[in-house]
Write a structure and sequence with these properties.
The protein is an all-beta fold and 171 residues long. 2% of the residues lie in helices and 50% in strands. It starts with a strand and ends with a helix. The model is unreliable at 6-15 (pLDDT under 50).
Length: 171
């Protein structure tokens, strides 16, 4: 079985009103799913340059594709795993769920899952995106359910920074 992913690329630079916008090119790509999986509940979350795509399988496993070949990354720490983003090096980020609650914020690199640190006093922490330098950004709820921006800098492994300009705005 295959999963179909649509990727859209669009760049619209500032231009005079008389100029035509640039062509937008995209194509649908069929992606295989692991043996025993179905496409009905498997999903693609993100793609990166270099032929990388990431998502989640119907079995609760993280999935990663490289140049159209699927890799079943399994469950991080035995829990349902939802991968949200991937960079051009194939490093993926997301979170795990147990009993319908977010349990771990994770990164898949070097052939395995690692837990990302949780900011003090925070819960419901999610990794949302990773750039090609390896910096990770996400969200973290405080005890009052305000949503804060969480940042895991690649230059300081094992650390997390909370950026909180206006937590009510992010809710």
């Amino acid at each position: 079985m295959t999963l179909t992913a649509g990727l859209v690329a669009s760049v619209v630079p500032a231009m005079p009103a008389a100029a035509s916008p640039p062509e937008c090119a995209w194509s649908m790509t069929s992606l295989p799913v692991p043996t025993g999986s179905t496409t009905a509940r498997s999903s693609v979350s993100s793609a990166a340059s270099g032929g990388w795509v990431v998502g989640s399988g119907d079995t609760g496993n993280g999935l990663r594709w490289h140049n159209g070949q699927v890799e079943d990354l399994g469950r991080a720490f035995g829990e349902q795993t939802e991968l949200r983003d991937i960079n051009a090096s194939g490093v993926a980020v997301g979170q795990t769920f147990g009993d319908a609650y977010i349990n771990n914020t994770v990164v898949y690199r070097g052939g395995g899952y690692e837990r990302l640190p949780v900011p003090a006093g925070m819960r419901g922490v999610k990794a949302k995106a990773i750039n090609d330098a390896g910096d990770i950004v996400g969200t973290a709820n405080d005890e009052f359910t305000n949503v804060n921006v969480a940042f895991w800098p690649a230059a300081s492994p094992g650390t997390v920074v909370v950026i909180n300009p206006d937590p009510a705005q992010y809710y």
